[in-house]
Each structure stands twice: as structure tokens, then as C-alpha cells.
């Protein structure tokens, strides 16, 4: 039973062709808000014994980075190796003095896709992943940036975000994924010795060649052996694993499909899959940013899709407490949390990475958290949508049309 479930998932036609396998024996903890996950990340760094890997898109100087740099300096003083992979565009807010402080401490820095005028549209390709991995044993993944916007007010803007603390064999895959990008940036091969976990199985594989579900039989297995997890990635148009898995989960959902994204500009195939899921009776909910979005243009452009979704029975909520920066998909007993928004731009240009999880306990925790988020949101009804002012309709039409043109050009 134990090994067969893992093999069943990994040998399905969908997963068999993907670079990262399902692995069992993993444990996760959901961390909500920067006030919880930033201290947990610093604590893990302070407890590290061998190596620390960081890969983040949005990095800016401030209180968060001050504490993180202090922790990394202490790690270097203990003799640990530290690698820090930043995106050249996303890290513009990290001042020169902070960069020099990291270098002086011996932290190895790399910058993904340096901005250059002669690259033209290749400058759009960004590393949007978010990862902290410690000793090959613990990893933090999700959607946060290393900046004060994710701190609660008054220290920060109070952006709403979720992170997942992971412990188990899947951390090895996150390290290998990091090493691939590092090699591209620095032409340097990193080799890590995997952490030896006790009572942990490797490999997940076949729900049957026909794709039949094995999830109903997994609860006992997971309770004994820990959650099932796999790394899911996007690497531009040539590698669309996250999009493929999203679409399949939407098509296979039976009871619940709750999606949270900071930017909602999905492909036509994803929108059609959402409508079809709602029409067959699935509880389909979209939790999107309200007018507190950090990119109002994207917020209004995304609203051009509301009417057809609402008519199909999709429930749409706009978060009002703050800017909701989370990226989550909850489909029955399957969860995906990570860096990838449900927008065509992310999937086309960025390096993205999500953690897929099959774990009933995590699903229950996430369901409870999302229900709380729905309470701080405004649900849009079809009736209220059709009655919105003309100026809003024009604004949404113009921005939506411009977004469509830009996506076709780039």
C-alpha cells in the first residue's frame, strides 16, 4: 500500500513526464502573515548547521532584510555556506550597502538575468520563485518577498501572504532546482549531500494509466508516513508544468475548487475549465485582490472576465482587508502553494515554482484559513456586477483590451 501509492502517482501519464517526482514522508506547517513566517525563517537560519539557500524575487532594504542579513552574517560566522540568488529586476530595492554587507560576510550572491538594453524582450524573463532551504532538511516556500510590505501595520503595509514550512525528502528537490538556476547565473555547479530522513519513502507515481484517482485511499497512508509532495515548476513557454497541473486539477475537481491569486489574467483554456467545473456542480471560488492591489491596472483588466465566470456559477470574492498577495489552489484533497499567479504573463516569462501537496490535515487548515479570508472579502453577485457604473465598464474594457494586446505582442 505504502510504496504502491507513491508509484501510482508517479507513473501516471501526466506526472511520469515531469522532472520532479512525488515524494512521501514530508511534513508541513502553514504560516499566515509576515509576523509569523519571517521569525520562523530567521529561527531556521539561526539553527542551521551546514548550508543555507535563498532564492527570492522581491527583495528590498528595510526591517525584514536587516534582521535577515544579521542572521546570515551569524551563520557565516559559524562557518556555514550561504548562497543567495536574487532577480536583478526584483532586487532593485536592495541598497548597495546591504549588498556589500552580505558580500563582506562571505555570502555568495548571484543575480538572475541582468538587465541590459540589448536584450530587448528577454529582459521580461524573471526569476519569480521564493525559497529558503536549510541543511537540505527544512524549506520555506510560498509567495512572500523579503521586504517590509509583508509586515503588519504600522511596521509595513500588511500585505496578506501564506508560506509553507516543509520538512522531508522533497526539500532535496528544492535544492536541486536552486542549483540549476545558480548554474545558469554563475556557471558554477553546486552539489549537495541529501539529508538522511528516517522512516521516509522516496518516489510517488501511477493513479493508473487512465488517470483514475487514488486520493480516496491515501488518508491512512499519509497519517502514517507524512504528506505527499512534489515540486511543480514553470520555466517560460517551453516548460509549463504548473499550468498543466492546474488545468488537470480544475478538470478533475469534484467538490471544491478554491483559487487565490494576486493577479488574475488566465489563459482561455483555464477560464473555460473554471466555467465547466462550476457548471458540473463544483464549489468554484476565486479570491482576488480588491482595489488595494499594488497594480490597479491589472486589477481592472482582470475584471473583464468576471461576467462569463459569474454566469457559469463561479463565486468571485475581492479581498478588502489589505492587498492579498497569496497564490493558492485548493482542489478537494490537493493543494498547491507557491510563487505562481494565475496570469498568462507569469506563465509565459517567469521562473515559477509551487509546492503540490496531498495531505488531508493541510487541506483542512487551508480551508479554515480561506474561510476567514472570505469573511474579509466582498462577494460579487451577477446582479451587482451588471449594475456597476458605466465608467467602471469603460475602464475595465480599455485596460482589458490593452492587456490582451500586450500578451499577444510579448
UniProtKB/TrEMBL annotation:
SMART domains attached to this UniProt entry: PLDc (SM00155)
Domain PLD phosphodiesterase: 123-150
Annotated Gene3D superfamilies: Endonuclease Chain A (3.30.870.10)
Gene Ontology molecular function, alphabetical: cardiolipin synthase activity
UniProt cross-references to PROSITE patterns, sorted A to Z: PLD
BP term (GO), one: cardiolipin biosynthetic process
Superkingdom, taxonomy of origin: Bacteria
GO cellular component: membrane
Record-given protein name: Phosphatidylserine/phosphatidylglycerophosphate/ cardiolipin synthase family protein
Organism: Motiliproteus coralliicola
Amino acid at each position: 500500500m505504502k510504496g504502491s501509492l507513491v508509484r501510482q502517482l508517479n507513473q501516471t501519464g501526466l506526472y511520469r513526464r515531469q522532472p520532479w517526482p512525488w515524494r512521501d514522508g514530508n511534513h508541513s506547517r502553514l504560516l499566515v502573515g509576515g509576523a509569523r513566517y519571517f521569525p520562523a525563517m530567521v529561527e531556521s537560519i539561526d539553527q542551521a548547521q551546514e548550508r543555507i539557500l535563498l532564492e527570492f524575487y522581491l527583495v528590498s532594504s528595510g526591517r525584514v532584510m536587516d534582521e535577515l542579513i544579521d542572521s546570515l552574517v551569524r551563520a557565516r560566522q559559524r562557518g556555514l555556506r550561504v548562497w543567495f540568488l536574487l532577480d536583478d529586476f526584483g532586487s532593485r530595492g536592495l541598497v548597495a550597502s546591504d549588498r556589500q554587507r552580505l558580500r563582506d560576510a562571505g555570502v555568495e550572491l548571484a543575480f538572475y538575468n541582468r538587465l541590459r538594453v540589448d536584450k530587448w524582450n528577454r529582459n521580461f524573463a524573471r526569476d519569480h520563485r521564493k525559497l529558503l532551504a536549510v541543511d537540505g532538511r527544512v524549506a520555506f516556500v510560498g509567495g512572500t518577498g523579503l521586504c517590509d510590505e509583508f509586515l503588519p501595520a504600522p511596521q509595513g503595509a500588511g500585505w496578506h501572504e501564506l508560506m509553507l514550512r516543509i520538512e522531508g525528502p522533497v526539500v532535496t528537490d528544492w535544492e536541486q532546482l536552486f542549483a540549476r538556476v545558480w548554474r545558469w547565473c554563475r556557471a558554477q555547479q553546486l552539489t549537495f549531500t541529501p539529508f538522511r530522513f528516517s522512516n521516509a519513502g522516496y518516489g510517488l507515481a501511477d493513479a493508473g494509466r487512465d488517470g483514475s484517482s487514488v486520493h480516496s485511499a491515501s488518508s491512512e497512508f499519509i497519517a502514517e508516513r507524512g504528506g505527499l509532495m512534489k515540486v511543480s515548476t514553470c520555466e517560460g513557454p517551453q516548460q509549463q508544468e504548473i499550468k498543466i497541473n492546474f488545468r488537470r486539477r480544475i478538470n478533475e475537481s469534484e467538490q471544491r475548487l478554491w483559487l487565490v491569486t494576486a493577479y488574475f489574467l488566465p489563459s482561455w483554456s483555464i477560464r473555460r475549465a473554471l466555467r465547466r467545473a462550476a457548471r458540473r456542480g463544483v464549489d468554484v471560488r476565486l479570491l482576488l485582490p480588491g482595489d488595494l492591489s499594488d497594480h490597479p491596472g491589472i486589477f481592472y483588466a482582470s475584471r473583464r472576465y468576471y461576467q462569463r465566470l459569474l454566469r457559469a456559477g463561479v463565486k468571485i470574492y475581492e479581498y478588502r482587508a489589505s492587498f492579498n498577495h497569496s497564490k493558492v489552489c485548493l482542489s478537494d484533497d490537493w493543494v498547491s502553494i507557491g510563487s505562481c499567479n494565475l496570469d498568462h504573463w507569469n506563465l509565459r516569462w517567469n521562473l515559477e515554482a509551487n509546492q503540490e501537496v496531498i495531505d488531508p490535515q493541510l487541506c483542512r487548515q487551508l480551508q479554515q484559513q480561506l474561510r476567514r479570508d472570505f469573511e474579509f472579502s466582498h462577494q460579487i453577485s451577477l446582479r451587482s456586477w451588471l449594475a456597476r457604473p458605466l465608467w467602471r465598464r469603460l475602464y475595465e474594457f480599455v485596460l482589458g483590451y490593452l492587456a490582451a494586446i500586450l500578451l499577444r505582442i510579448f
